[in-house]
Amino acid sequence: MKDILPEPHTLSDVVREFQYWDWRYRMRSAAGKEIAPNALGDGEGPIYVRESWLEKKLAIIHPRTR
Helix 45-60 vs helix 11-35: angle between axes, to the nearest 10 degrees? Predict the structure, then answer.
């Protein structure tokens, strides 16, 4: 996903992307339950990889001010 999505440069960018992935997951989950109530989830493999990468960015990116 590094080639598709821009790299976050601030802590706010990282938090905003976490919020986006959380929203996306909730919307897909709700839609999936409406379409097929007894079906299993779709995996979301690449999303978990991206979120893991974002967690590492939280440790690397320095805040603008204390």
Answer: 160
Q: Kindly report the pTM of this predicted structure.
A: 0.70
Higher pLDDT, 35 or 4: 35
Answer yes or no: are the C-beta atoms of 58 and 9 closer than 8 Å. Answer: no
The CB-side HSE value for 7 (13 A sphere, CA atoms) comes to 9
Q: How far is CA 31 from CA 25, 27, 62, in A?
A: 10, 6, 37
Q: What residue ranges in the chain does DSSP mark as E strands?
A: none
Other Cβ atoms within 10 Å of 14 Cβ, number: 20
Percent of the chain past pLDDT 70, that is, above it, reads 86
Does 26 have pLDDT greater than 80? Answer: yes
